[in-house]
Amino acid sequence: MSLRATARALPTLVRVALSEAVAYRTEMFVWMLATTMPLVMLALWTAVAQGAPIGRYDEPKFIAYFLATFVVRQVTGSWAFYDMVFEVRDGTLAMRLLRPVHPLVGYAIGSIASIPMRALVSLPVAIVGLLVVGRDGVTHDPAIWALWVPSLLGAWLIALFVNLAVGCLSFWVESSMKLMDLWLVFFFVLSGYLVPVDLFPPALRAVIDWLPFRFQIGLSVELMTGAHGFSEGLALLARQWMWVGIGLAATIVLWGRGVRRFEAYGG
Fold first, then answer.
1. pTM of the predicted protein model
2. Backbone φ and ψ of 24, nearest 5°
3. Neighbours of 148 (CB within 10 A)
4. Closest CA to 77 of 33, 17, 45
5. Which tens digit of pLDDT belongs to each residue from 21-45?
């Protein structure tokens, strides 16, 4: 599959993926409703913080944090795993392998196509949130915003590669769905999605700082809400992109071996 063939086919793939996202907008809306837990946690933590601040968080900061979490989750989520698993199981992956575009690129484009519809939900929430908490709810440092953009891309890439790598395990095991569920449990607890990472005990925080979960959500939210200076944010961004590289390498290795197994068994 040459780069030239991929480049020629990309516009068509994007149009098809966008059309599918619009056609299945009801299903997409259900997915978006399934990611509203930060809004639930917002209500919970602001109620707890009414008596006194918790760590660095008073009520307005909790509001800013969890609204930012909702926005970041909407624009960095990926569910490519489910498409891959079903296609491996029913054999339709064979049709994808015949296309001029690498299947992993196709899965990535499918994930990208859903972002505009999710942004239609998340951007109004961000605007309303900014009006509620005021301008102090987000950082005003242009240098931090310059780090935030690649952190958002890194968060999406980690989510994508996790989906693809775990999806590749379906070439060998039927229980890969359970493995994704297990990953999501750790993601919910350790990423900053339900609890800000800086509220964990120092010993646990030291471990979380080196795990990939925090870099799927927490880093982008922390930068957005002004939790880090430039030097600290840059160091964390480098650590995030280390995980992007690990995820890419794992995906390539698992895909290559998995496809050979798929083709050997006449998939």
1. 0.86
2. -105, 40
3. 22
4. 33
5. 554 455 555 555 556 777 778 888 8
